[in-house]
Every structure is written in structure tokens, then in C-alpha cells.
Automatic annotation (TrEMBL):
CDD domains (UniProt xref): TenA_C_AtTH2-like (cd19368)
Protein name: Aminopyrimidine aminohydrolase, mitochondrial
Natural source organism: Capsicum baccatum (Peruvian pepper)
Thiaminase-2/PQQC domain residues: 153-237
InterPro entries: HAD-like_sf, HAD_sf, Haem_Oase-like_multi-hlx, Thiaminase-2/PQQC, Thiamine_Salvage_TenA
Molecular function, one GO term: hydrolase activity
Matching Pfam families: TENA_THI-4
PANTHER family: AMINOPYRIMIDINE AMINOHYDROLASE, MITOCHONDRIAL ISOFORM X1-RELATED, BIFUNCTIONAL TH2 PROTEIN
GO biological process: thiamine metabolic process
One cellular-component annotation, GO: cytosol
Length: 561
């Protein structure tokens, strides 16, 4: 499954940078080239075109290592870099024979692609000391200055090796051993080999060693070079010519005329990085504290900040306790062997009743009374989003390849909070479907206008939106969520994407025969079906939901790099 484990803080700079820019590596998995390669359906001409570029990469690596060896001050470091250069030269010499071992024959002549040239030019410029933003360019005098340039050179090589190691292992993980007839498996195995991993690790270890004596500014340069190398390598992968039909990205596969994409999203913890109820609690407590300081009796803020904080805490604890009891009650039935949508709907009625009672408790407590509409909007404007979320929504709404719209379906009590959170960026006005807080003047009454309390409410809104589109051309629906309340919409959408799959959500889904498949693995299967003459379209109610770890994966799947 695609994902990264936590890395200790004392890891070397190479590992820290790899983890920091992990989203870029995830995006590479969703390029048409990699998906077709993993499915074994990639046209051999496309494959040979790609590996024909290896010679230009290897030549650049060899020259860069030669310069780095001259820069290195330590004999041990020089020997290590010399060994790296020898391995590159050996691979250059044996390239044709190696490709034959994989079952292919390289074209007799090739030209350097522009995407290849952008990376090799960048690498050779870096190795020659032409580093953007570097002070004192051209003045390489002391051993420390030379060591710095050796580190810079390795920082422009390390991410390429690590990226290919990562991609090959992810591809290898989705191959089915007993069924695998992937004609590129030998090439994949080569990149998955212990020797390839050892080479990647040697470069990273030496980069770590050479970076120990660097200043903070110089480490910033290392980071910029590492990131630039990663981006250029991703551009190379994305630029590979594909002549066949592919399953991804969605927005680049459709004919503009008559095609529609509707993206549905949950809000709390899907778009936002914090729960909206906690933000509204903060607004209420701050308003009460201000009233306490002013030593006046507000007609709206009726209890002290301390009492209000205690009330919120009690409501939260009670909600969590009773929610867990409700889920356990649902889980008491036997696990079914196949997808049971009707059984899931019946079970979720219990959850719907619970959510309605929970909202009633909030209203009766009065904790939502006396909140300023201005304060709610201000909190929304400063709300922290999940990394990459806004970029996806902007990209979908700005797509020129199809008619697209975005709808937010949320249990959030305040539509104003959601709308203001999106208004703070470059996003146009989104379609928000949520509960609302009624006002007297510009202050909340404490009541909730209940529009979205249950999975059924979300599904009703989902269906109503689709009906409003009519039957004008082909329509693709994508739903992104991560809570139990999203289940019915996730299953009804053509593509249901669970972001940050929790153990509880998975356990409940499996109870009713729902399968959770990593999105990359699902795309590989879909690409294989397409190549075999099957239907290339997505369809809902299959009982399969696709999992991702970040919005970066959704961006790559929907919009491409």
C-alpha cells in the first residue's frame, strides 16, 4: 500500500528531504506512464523511448561524479565518489546487453528529449558550481567550499535514485505473483534489487556526511537543489509519450463537449485540518471571556467562560462515548461475505438517530448562543486546510477539459464558517450544503437549522445535485471523505476516495462487505481492464472504495502533475 512511515528527527538530511517532499513522489505513481507500466500494458515503443534516455542521464551522472570527486577533501569521500562513477560507467558500457536481458532491443539512434536535457543541464550546472542563490559563485578556494559543492552535486542526484527505488517497489507490490505476465517485470526487478538500493543508500549516506559541516544557509541550498532535482525528474516521467488510452488523469481523458465532472467533498478533517465544532467552541468561549472581562451582562452570553468551557467539554465527552457505543451496536451483527448495501443503510439509521439527538443536546445546552457572525467568518477565513486540498478544488474548477463543479457536503453547524474558509483563497464561490446557525441581527440564537445530520441527508443532497444536472452528456462523480457519515455517498459516486483511512471506518466497512483498495492499485487494475477491451468507465455501487494518504494523490489522479 502507498504510504510513508514516520522518520525519527535525527535522520540524515537525505532522508529528511525525501520525507519532506514525499507528496511529489506519490504524484509520480499516478502518471499515465507509471500506471501503464505497472499494469504491463505500456506500449513497448514508449518503454524503449524512456530507457533510451538513460544514456544521457548516465553521462551526466559520470561527469558530475568526476567533478564531485575533485571537490571532496577527504580521501575516503573521494574513493566513495570514485566508486559511484565507476558503477555509472560500467552501466553505460553494459546498457545494450542489460536491455537485451530484459527482453528488448534499444533503438540504434536516439535524441535527448527536452525534459531529459532540463535535468542534465541542471545537474551539470550544479556540479560546475553554478548554483542559483549561492554566495561567492566562482570562488572555490578552501576545502570547506569544495566540500559544499560536492554536497550540492549529490543533492541533485540523490532524489532521482531514491525516486526510482520507491516507484519500482510500489509497482512490485501491486503485481500478483501467480498471475503476473508483466513484460517489464525484469526491469522492475532490477530497480527493486539490493544492488540498486545499495547505490541509492550510498549516495544518501555520503550526502549526509558532506552536509554535517554546512551552515544553515548552505543546507537551505541543499534542500532547494534536492527539491528542484525531484521536480525535474517528475517532469521527465510525466513527459514520456503515451500512445494508448489511459485511465488517468480524469480531467485530461475526456472530450470537453458534453462531459461533466462533479467533485463532492466532506469538510471536517477532509478539507479542514481541524474540526469545525472545536472552532465554534473557541468562538463561544472567547466571546464569554470577553463578556467576563467587560463585567457586563450580555443578552446573549449567559454563562461564564469557565462554565461554558466545562459544558463544551462535557458535550464532547458524551458525544464520543455515545458514538462509540452506537458503532459497537452496529458492529454486533455478523460480518457479511459480500457487499451488503441494504444492510449498511439499515445500520446507519441508528447512527442518524444518534447524530440528531447529539445536535439536540447542543441546542438545549445553549452553547451556540451569542456567537457573532463576524467572529465566525473571521475564524473561517483563518482556518487551516489539509495540505493540497485547495489546489485540487481550484484545479477542478479551472479545468478546460470538461465542465466541472465542486460541492461540499458537511455536518458542520455553520455554513458561514465553511464559505468564509474558502473565500480567503483564490477559489470562486463553492456550493456548500450544511447546517446553518440562525441569527438575531448578527448574533446566533443558539438554535441549528438542521439540513445535514445523517448519511441519508448527505446521500439525498448528492442525488438531488446529480438530478439537477440532467442527462446532458457523460457525467463522472468523485466523492472524497473519511467518516462513517460519508459511506453512502462514497459508495454511490463513480469513484469513492477515502482520505486517511481510519481503523474504525475500515472495520465498519468490512462488516458490510466493503473493500478498501489503495487508489494506485485500483488504477493499475482499471488500466489492465481497459487494455483487455473492458469498459474504461468508473461506476458506483461496486462495493469498492479507494484509499489515499493525502490530497497530493487526489491531485495527481484527477488533474495530473
Amino acid at each position: 500500500m502507498v504510504g510513508f512511515q514516520a522518520v525519527p528527527d535525527d535522520g540524515g538530511i537525505a532522508r529528511r528531504l525525501w520525507v519532506k517532499f514525499k507528496n511529489e513522489s506519490l504524484c509520480a505513481l499516478y502518471t499515465p506512464f507509471v500506471v501503464c507500466l505497472a499494469s504491463g500494458t505500456l506500449d513497448s515503443i514508449s518503454f524503449l523511448h524512456c530507457i533510451s534516455q538513460d544514456v544521457y542521464f548516465l553521462q551526466a551522472f559520470a561527469h558530475a561524479y568526476e567533478l564531485a570527486e575533485d571537490y571532496a577533501d577527504d580521501d575516503e569521500d573521494k574513493e566513495a565518489i570514485r566508486g559511484m562513477r565507476k558503477r555509472v560507467l560500467r552501466k553505460l558500457k553494459d546498457q545494450d546487453d542489460l536491455v537485451r536481458e530484459w527482453g528488448f532491443e534499444l533503438p540504434k539512434a536516439s535524441t535527448c528529449d527536452s525534459a531529459t536535457a532540463r535535468y542534465t543541464d541542471f545537474l551539470l550546472a550544479t556540479a560546475a558550481g553554478k548554483v542559483e542563490g549561492e554566495k561567492g559563485r566562482g570562488k572555490i578556494v578552501t576545502p570547506f567550499e569544495k566540500t559544499r559543492l560536492a554536497a550540492y552535486t549529490l543533492s541533485a542526484i540523490a532524489p532521482c535514485m531514491r525516486l526510482y527505488s520507491f516507484l519500482s517497489k510500489e509497482i512490485k507490490a501491486v503485481l500478483v505473483p501467480e498471475e503476473s505476465n508483466n513484460i517489464y517485470e525484469r526491469w522492475i526487478d532490477c530497480l527493486c534489487s539490493e544492488s540498486f538500493e545499495a547505490n541509492a543508500s550510498r549516495i544518501e549516506d555520503l550526502l549526509d556526511k558532506l552536509s554535517v559541516t554546512l551552515t544553515g544557509e548552505e543546507l537551505d541550498v541543499v534542500e532547494k537543489l534536492y527539491h528542484q532535482a525531484m521536480k525535474l525528474e517528475l517532469e521527465f516521467i510525466s513527459a514520456q509519450p503515451i500512445t494508448q488510452s489511459t485511465i488517468t488523469p480524469i480531467t485530461q481523458l475526456q472530450e470537453p463537449a458534453g462531459c461533466n465532472l462533479t467533485l463532492f467533498c466532506d469538510f471536517d478533517m477532509t478539507c479542514s485540518a481541524v474540526d469545525s465544532s472545536a472552532l465554534l467552541a473557541d468562538v463561544a468561549i472567547i466571546a464569554a471571556a470577553k463578556s467576563d472581562l467587560d463585567d457586563c451582562e450580555s443578552p446573549y452570553v449567559h454563562i461564564s467562560a469557565a462554565d461554558l468551557r466545562a459544558t463544551w467539554s462535557n458535550l464532547s465527552s458524551k458525544y464520543i462515548e455515545e458514538y462509540e457505543q452506537c458503532i459497537e451496536s452496529i458492529m454486533s451483527s455478523e460480518t457479511v461475505g459480500k457487499f451488503d448495501y441494504e444492510g449498511l443503510c439499515k445500520a446507519l439509521v441508528q447512527l442518524s438517530d444518534f447524530e440528531s439527538r447529539a445536535n439536540d443536546m447542543v441546542v438545549h445546552s445553549g452553547v451556540l448562543r451569542g456567537l457573532s457572525q463576524e467572529d465566525i467568518k473571521r475564524v473561517g477565513e483563518h482556518l487551516i486546510f489539509q495540505n493540497g486540498c485547495k489546489n485540487v478544488l481550484q484545479g477542478v474548477l479551472g479545468s478546460e477539459n470538461m465542465h466541472a463543479d465542486v460541492h461540499i457536503l458537511s455536518y458542520c453547524w455553520s455554513g458561514d464558517l465553511i464559505r468564509s474558509s474558502f473565500s480567503s483563497g483564490a477559489l470562486p464561490v463553492l456550493n456548500v450544503h450544511s447546517n446553518e446557525l440562525p441569527y438575531e441581527g448578527s448574533v446566533t440564537t443558539g438554535d441549528i437549522i438542521k439540513k445535514m445530520e445523517s448519511p441519508m441527508d448527505k446521500l439525498q443532497a448528492f442525488n438531488d445535485i446529480l438530478k439537477s444536472h440532467g442527462n446532458n452528456g457523460k457525467h463522472t462523480t468523485v466523492y472524497v471523505g473519511g467518516s462513517v457519515g460519508d459511506f453512502l455517498c462514497l459508495l454511490s459516486a463513480d469513484v469513492g476516495i477515502v482520505i486517511g483511512l481510519s481503523a474504525g471506518l475500515k472495520r465498519l466497512g468490512v462488516q458490510f462487505g466493503i473493500s478498501f483498495v489503495p487508489l494506485f492499485s485500483g488504477l493499475v487494475t482499471k488500466q489492465r481492464e481497459l487494455a483487455e477491451g473492458g469498459c474504461s468507465g468508473w461506476r458506483g455501487m461496486s462495493g469498492i472504495l479507494y484509499t489515499v494518504s493525502s490530497w497530493a494523490e487526489i491531485h495527481a489522479f484527477v488533474l495530473g502533475l
